[in-house]
């Protein structure tokens, strides 16, 4: 799991030196030194504070609902949390079209509670997420065509990884993830690598659609694997939606084409989840 050392401790600095031996291939670990220099939160206390919230419904179901709604809203879905809460917990009936895609995403968040984080299971999660987005033959299947992300001005916003190298890039990403899952990480490292995995995945953009929803799920999944059930309360999806302009600007910041991405510019994106957790009002 995770060692709860703080970035200010001598034990942590010694540990940082040891972690330089971690042989990552696609995740830019060199950025961690700059991250640790600016990280001024006690992440252990922030995480504990996130659990201090009484509610009349199941804690885990509630936060999975929050994740599902706000990750859907980032993609432009017309769904409000108040309505989804009534749908999930009060049995209020809505038109299926209104709740279905958030329900599908909720099913994927349920799945990752007990599923090992690996490439095969990621494809299974994508099948759930896109049940009402993509035709069956595209669910959980990597694309075999070029992929361009179109911005609000109807211009090409980003050119994703080539379909010729997509499978090898995903294989490399998951080899890095497996190394991180097997390693003893500090809590600072967990909060560094989780959003970084999100970022690298969404830049590869392996699926025809549902990449953003899957990337945010992947970030939460890594948190769950390293921190356990307490990670359910990390409202990263709501934080990204609340700071939606920063979210997209920080995604764009590292480059417009996969082949020329500069992860030295990724620090603002990587800090978003920790900043959101520690500055959230409860």
Helix proportion of residues, in percent?
55-70%
Category by helix and strand content: mainly alpha
**What portion of residues belong to β-strands?**
under 5%
- Number of discrete domains: 1
CATH class: Mainly Alpha
| CATH topology call | Fic-like fold
The biggest beta sheet is recorded as: 2 strands, parallel
Shape: globular
Instruction: Give the second-level CATH assignment, the architecture.
Output: Orthogonal Bundle
CATH superfamily: Fido-like domain
What is the average per-residue confidence, as pLDDT, rounded to a whole number? 91
Low-confidence stretches: 3-8, 10-18
Number of strands: 4
InterPro entries: Fido, Fido-like_dom_sf, Fido_containing
Organism: Luteibaculum oceani
Keywords: ATP-binding, Nucleotide-binding
Pfam family, one: Fic
Structural account:
The protein is mainly α. Helices cover 56% and strands 4% of the residues. The strands form two sheets. It has a two-stranded parallel sheet with strand order 1-4. A two-stranded antiparallel sheet has the order 2-3. It is globular, with a radius of gyration of 18 Å. The two termini are 26 Å apart. The relative contact order is 0.17.
Lay out the secondary structure.
Layout: E1 2-3, H1 10-19, H2 32-38, H3 43-50, H4 59-74, H5 81-89, H6 96-111, H7 119-129, E2 148-150, E3 156-159, H8 166-182, E4 185-186, H9 187-204, H10 211-227, H11 236-242, H12 244-252, H13 267-270, H14 272-279
Parallel strand pairs: 1-4
Antiparallel strand pairs: 2-3
Helix pairs in contact: 4-5, 4-6, 4-11, 6-7, 7-10, 8-9, 9-10, 11-12
């Amino acid at each position: 799991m995770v060692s709860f050392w703080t970035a200010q401790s001598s034990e942590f600095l010694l540990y940082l030196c040891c972690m330089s031996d971690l042989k990552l291939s696609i995740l830019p670990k060199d950025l961690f030194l700059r991250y640790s220099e600016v990280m001024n939160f006690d992440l252990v206390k922030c995480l504990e504070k996130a659990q201090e919230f009484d509610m009349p419904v199941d804690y885990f179901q509630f936060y999975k609902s929050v994740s599902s709604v706000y990750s859907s809203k980032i993609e432009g879905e017309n769904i409000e949390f108040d309505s989804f809460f009534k749908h999930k917990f009060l049995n209020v009936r809505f038109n299926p079209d209104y709740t279905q895609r958030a329900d599908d995403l909720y099913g994927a968040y349920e799945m990752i509670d007990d599923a090992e984080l690996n490439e095969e299971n990621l494809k299974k999660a994508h099948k759930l997420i896109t049940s009402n987005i993509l035709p069956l033959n595209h669910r959980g299947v990597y694309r075999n065509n070029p992929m361009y992300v179109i911005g609000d001005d109807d211009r090409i916003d980003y050119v994703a990884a080539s379909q010729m190298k997509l499978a090898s890039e995903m294989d490399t990403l998951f080899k890095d993830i497996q190394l991180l899952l097997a390693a003893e990480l500090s809590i600072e490292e967990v909060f560094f690598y989780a959003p970084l995995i999100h970022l690298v995945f969404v830049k590869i953009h392996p699926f025809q659609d549902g990449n953003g929803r899957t990337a945010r799920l992947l970030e939460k999944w890594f948190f769950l694997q390293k921190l356990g059930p307490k990670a359910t309360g990390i409202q990263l999806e709501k934080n990204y939606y609340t700071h939606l302009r920063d979210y997209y600007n920080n995604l764009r910041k590292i480059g417009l084409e996969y082949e020329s991405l500069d992860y030295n510019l990724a620090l603002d994106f990587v800090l978003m989840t920790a900043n959101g957790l520690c500055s959230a009002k409860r």
